[in-house]
From TrEMBL:
InterPro entries: ADF-H, ADF-H/Gelsolin-like_dom_sf
GO biological process: regulation of actin filament polymerization
GO molecular function, one term: actin filament binding
Name of the molecule in the record: Cofilin/tropomyosin-type actin-binding protein
Domain of life: Eukaryota
Residue ranges of domain ADF-H in the record: 3-142, 209-346
Pfam families: Cofilin_ADF
Annotated stretches, region: Disordered: 151-186
Length: 349
């Protein structure tokens, strides 16, 4: 039994094919609900963000497939452009909890359906209207690329395209600029493995909507994952009442942290992974960071809905400590693996 149904599947396939074609004027398509689990094409057209933004209302959920030209600059200073497609999930601020829970069940199947017709370079989930900007879209599509000074943020086809928005200036960081930490070990209660935690003072303020049981420990671990001088490459957080606590951290990568993905649990984390790319025929490796959220299949719908706000707040907070190249959200075991994570990270080169 499918998670959702299309009101007119042939119409959907046609519009996705039009978005895929480079010579087509169709650059975006907005999908919404018709009934409880039936998804329909709301509208499609040329142009850019400003041409479909008005369709996204505060009291409903929409899914958008959006194609745009991204301009960037390589390490040699040469400007290049590429057409990329992003999948956007819009959850209106006035949506009821049960409706939000429905979107968490349908988002991934709809994403996978679109992936059958075209290559999706990134995914963006919007819970606050101010987060839907050209700069945020470009940030997702560029991944770890830094916008070149004087290079337009994006250009969109059609006569109604929105003007490109400039993104914030890039900043650089070094290990010496990170908060100082001191080591203290702890053992997860249901495992014999000893993980390394870091307790120290962080110079990064916690988001007003985010609460940690131990802010210094949380901030210190996020900084340590970023620090090339330490072995720690992952940290995971879980709920304790209305706050988040550190569940574990370590240097063993995905193999260590996957044991925390239990059917009745919600966990969030950051993983640093070394990925390879081929540039000019020679392979090089770099460490990239991905934000992970796991919502187990046995988590209650209302709890799932509340977790969405925490996920967004923690994602933004983590970006204060390190550069996140991608995000992966999983509701089932089949939706997360080291291979899937590598695919997400490799797509950001």
């Amino acid at each position: 039994m499918s998670a959702f149904d299309w009101a007119n599947e042939s119409e959907v396939q046609e519009v996705l094919e039009q978005i895929r074609k480079s010579d087509s004027n169709t650059k975006w398509a907005v999908f919404g609900y018709e009934g409880d689990k039936t998804v329909k094409l709301v509208q499609s057209g040329p142009g850019g963000l400003e041409d479909f933004r008005s369709l996204l209302t505060d009291d409903d959920i929409f899914y958008v497939v959006y194609s745009l030209e991204v301009k960037d600059q390589d390490e040699g200073g040469e400007v290049f452009s590429a057409t990329k497609v992003i999948f956007i999930t819009w959850v209106g601020t006035k949506c009821k909890p049960m409706l939000k829970a429905k979107s968490s069940q349908h988002r991934l199947p709809i994403y996978k359906y679109a992936l059958r017709s075209l290559q999706l370079a990134a995914e963006l989930q919007i819970l606050e209207p101010e987060d839907l900007t050209e700069a945020n879209i470009l940030g997702k599509l560029r991944g770890t690329h830094v916008e070149a000074e004087g290079v337009p943020a994006a250009s969109t086809g059609g006569s109604g395209g929105a003007a490109a928005a400039a993104s914030a200036p890039a900043t650089t960081s070094s290990s010496s600029a990170l908060p100082s930490t001191s080591r203290a070990s702890f053992v997860r209660k249901d495992q014999s493995t000893t993980h390394v935690a870091f307790k120290g003072t962080s110079n990064v303020n916690t988001d007003a909507n985010l609460s940690f049981v131990n802010p210094d420990e949380a901030n210190g671990l996020l900084a340590d994952v970023r620090n090339d001088g330490t072995p720690t490459n992952w940290v995971l957080f879980g709920h304790e009442g209305k706050s988040l606590k550190v569940l574990g951290s370590g240097s063993g990568g995905y193999t260590e942290l996957e044991g925390f993905f239990q059917d009745e649990e919600i966990v969030y984390g950051v993983l640093g992974l070394e990925v390879a790319d081929e540039d000019g025929g020679s392979e090089y490796k770099t460490t990239k960071y991905i934000f992970i959220s796991w919502v187990g299949p046995k988590v209650k719908p209302l709890t799932k809905a509340r977790s969405s706000q925490v996920r967004v707040a923690l994602y933004k907070h983590a970006k204060n400590h390190l550069q996140l190249a991608a995000e992966i959200q999983a509701l089932e075991r089949s939706e997360i693996s080291e291979e899937l994570i590598k695919q997400k990270l490799n797509a950001t080169f």
